[in-house]
Design a protein that fits this description.
303 residues; six-stranded mixed beta sheet; alpha/beta; four-stranded antiparallel beta sheet; 10 helices
Length: 303
């Protein structure tokens, strides 16, 4: 009986590998999150059909490069999304014969050709120079070039679109481009073995919850009433719940409710795992009366 705690990111590290480490932990190398998200919207997704996520975005110019603005602050209305899409529907028809647009800020297309495209999520690219994070070819040359052609055509049409003129008049950011990510098939998804072995999943992460639903795994956003035995948690290093969860895990170890804590993090983007037993916890007291106490998570991460 063990409890596994996965620290999804680090507050003081920046990754340059394509795909966030925790995304690869959840989904495998392809990080095919788009078909999972589309499926969660009630759409029946063929396991062998490539799905890509398309997000209307705002890109702004820094001194010598372009930066992707956070999509969270755009607040795109359904009427704006409809008008913008209508103006570029012919371009989307070139990309795919099927487009799903149940939400204004996230569109999905079915396109086998885009299987051969390496992409990263807006979560990884936003606030940064987009040059490094633009889509690139994998096994077939020319796909990334074709995507950039479509993207450039959309940018030109949206540059002075009435929707953007109205947004700018109201002091809002324009919607001046699109971002592609999460492309792949449900059949591409290869969760880390620890996820498959765990009986319960705990996280507020949207991607983990989509994956849990897909695999019919019990999952929760709170550990309050959940036994830690055979449970896996995925938390951000900045999550305020992290210290409470670490305290609870140590107490469960001290009280013999679990035999070990497996602590996983991703220094420099590489998976690192340590198994912590009760013998490794710090002890307080004198001689034979020393008892294990809660250890410092930061000390464990530094070790």
């Amino acid at each position: 009986m063990k409890y596994t705690l996965v620290i999804a990111d680090s507050q003081d590290q920046e990754y340059f590998d394509r795909g966030l480490p925790y995304e690869k932990f959840l989904l495998g190398k392809q990080t095919a999150s788009a078909p999972l998200e589309l499926q969660s919207q009630g759409v029946t997704v063929n396991p062998n059909t490539c799905i890509a996520r398309i997000e209307p975005i705002h890109i702004h110019a820094a001194r010598d490069h372009l930066v992707l603005t956070s999509t969270q602050i755009l607040d795109i209305k359904a009427s704006e999304a409809d008008a913008l899409f209508e103006s570029v529907k012919d371009i989307f028809a070139e990309m795919s014969s099927i487009t799903h647009r149940s939400k204004p800020h996230k569109w999905f297309i079915e396109s086998p050709a885009l299987q051969n495209l390496s992409t990263v999520s807006t979560a990884q690219a936003e606030g940064r120079n987009i040059d490094h994070w633009m889509p690139s070819d994998t096994s077939q040359e020319g796909v990334a070039r074709q995507w950039r052609k479509w993207q450039n055509e959309i940018q030109m049409i949206w540059f002075n679109h009435p929707v953007n003129e109205a947004r700018q008049a109201e002091g809002m950011l324009s919607i001046n481009s699109v971002w592609i990510s999460g492309n792949g098939k449900l059949a591409d998804i290869e969760p880390n073995e620890r996820l498959l072995q765990a009986k319960h999943w705990h996280s507020s992460d949207g991607c983990l919850n989509l994956l849990a639903s897909h695999l019919n795994k019990p999952h929760t956003t709170s550990l309050n009433e959940l036994s830690l035995a055979d449970t896996i948690s995925l938390l951000s290093a900045s999550d305020p719940e992290l210290s409470t969860v670490w305290q609870k895990a140590n107490e469960a170890l001290i009280n013999h409710q679990i035999k070990a804590i497996e602590l996983i993090d991703f220094p420099e983007g590489q998976e690192r795992s340590r198994t912590i037993t009760i013998e490794q916890l710090p002890k307080k007291g004198f001689a034979l009366w020393k008892k294990p106490v809660v250890g410092s998570l930061q000390d464990m991460l530094r070790s």
